[in-house]
Amino acid sequence: MPNTATQPSFIPRETPRSSVAPQRQKGLADLLALISIVLLVASIALAVGVFLYKGYLDSSVASKIKQLESAKKAFEPSLIHELTRLDDRMRSASTVLGGHLAPTAFLRMLERVTVVSIAYTSLNFEAVDMQNMSIKMNGVAGSVNAIALQADLFAKGSMVTSPIFSNINREADGIRFDLSALINPIAINYAQIISGATTKDASLPELDIPVLSAPATSDTEQNSDLQ
Fold first, then answer.
1. Is residue 191 within 8 Å of 98, Cβ to Cβ?
2. pLDDT in tens, 92-138
């Protein structure tokens, strides 16, 4: 019988190619496609959300504008305009009143603290501005002691500051003198005077200037001053 056994061959046979690499490439491509689809869907959803939120904001702003218009009509613009003008006038009046001076307060103070044996023959009131005011006066006194007492009364008050008596000379009608002093602007400020009077007693018909009055003197002391 002929030998039918397969003869061994030294030519290498072609091995079948592995299908692992194509499968991996296909899986990676599917993953990338899935990620792209997810990102696309997310972008579309975000764009739709932004569009809807913008529409909500627009409608909300329009609603608020309508509410403001309704509130404005309810408050009557003409009345608001009149009230605004009244407020401006009151503020202007308050500013003017705050800077208004009351020189009569100084005259009332002078009437209250002047010593009995002293008479003033002239008065010059100077006001450079609201914060710099002064007086210059001439007078005649019964004695030097009366002038000293008057200087003490001015010093104890709050309206006249830095009083200076000068040119003190004895003449036939008494002791002549010159007086110069500064005026405290707060003490003659009309608003301050009104506030002080209201705080003390709102029922007073006149302003009360809290300045120290001259002490009472006996007849013997007055006669000695006049000598």
1. yes
2. 877 776 667 778 888 888 889 999 999 999 999 888 877 888 999 99
Domain that holds residue 177: 103-226
In-domain check, residue 19? no
Structural domain contains residue 50: no
Separation between Cα atoms, residue 181 and residue 130, nearest integer Å: 16
CATH number (domain holding residue 221): 3.30.70
Does residue 167 sit within a domain?
A: yes
Residue tagged 């000598």 (tokens): 227
Tokens of 26: 């296909």
Report yes or no on whether pTM surpasses 0.85: no
